[in-house]
UniProtKB/TrEMBL annotation:
ABC transporter domain boundaries: 11-242
Taxonomic lineage of the native organism: Bacteria, Pseudomonadati, Pseudomonadota, Betaproteobacteria, Burkholderiales
Keyword tags: Amino-acid transport, ATP-binding, Cell membrane, Membrane, Nucleotide-binding, Transport
InterPro entries reported for this sequence: AAA+_ATPase (IPR003593), ABC_transporter-like_ATP-bd (IPR003439), BCAA_Transport_ATP-bd_LivF (IPR052156), P-loop_NTPase (IPR027417)
Matches recorded under Gene3D superfamilies: P-loop containing nucleotide triphosphate hydrolases
Cell inner membrane keyword on record: no
Name under which the protein is recorded: ABC transporter ATP-binding protein
Domain of life where this protein originates: Bacteria
Amino acid sequence: MANQRPCAPLLEVRDVRVAYGKAEVVHGISMDVRAGEFVVMLGRNGAGKSSLLHAISGLVPMRTGTVRFEGRDLGGARPRDIVKAGIIQVLEGHRVFHTLSVEDNLLIGTYAANSRGDRGKLGRIYELFPELAERRHQMASRLSGGQQQILAVGQGLIGDPKLLILDEPSGGLAPMVVDRILDVASDLCRSGMAILLVEQLVEKALRHAHYGYLVETGRVAAEAFVDELREGDLLQRVYLGGH
Ligand SMILES: Nc1ncnc2c1ncn2[C@@H]1O[C@H](COP(=O)(O)OP(=O)(O)OP(=O)(O)O)[C@@H](O)[C@H]1O
Ligand SMILES: [Mg+2]
């Protein structure tokens, strides 16, 4: 992508603050994901990245600020309605339902659109991730951590998001798993799905993303195209805490 962001805004986050009790951890973040973009959010542990993502997905309330998606204000919307609007977040830590089969876990991802489950959507996910097809009748608890993460991504994708949010898909897993997930995300992005990724494996993330935000203690410290982010000393500052 040339160094110009697509004009069409998809997700518009404006001055969002998030607090747990009295402790504010997101201090007014504004950021965009535009149509067809792959955006990465980088920052150290505890910077507030997941808290912002949870606010976007309606999983934690915002103290102030607005989130708009395709021009529609999502303030106060329930998580289920946010999913229906087209934003699906794959949570940190490969969370799947351990006592359900792989296939039932995937079907859960179709419930927002169809409360009886939509088996017709399984085929596409099995094409993307043949390892899930091979294990479709296995309990999720019997999968490796990497396979569980792939299942969590499949559970998100089967809901046909317009914006897929991935919160640290690497989560302590083998680098190969992360490459698989990010390659699939890049392919989906090329076919029109927008991606918002939070990732600690900075190099891998920058290889796939177009545009990035650096978050430092609840604020955006910098935003730029990924090649500019790579060149500057900001990344080092954010990760090593130097100035
Ligand atoms: N449910 C919660 N209740 C209270 N404090 C929380 C809660 N969740 C997160 N925090 C705190 O909010 C701050 C930001 O956490 P958050 O998980 O958003 O950071 P993060 O950037 O996603 O970090 P990581 O890279 O470790 O995932 C941290 O100080 C964390 O301890
Ligand atoms: Mg996090």
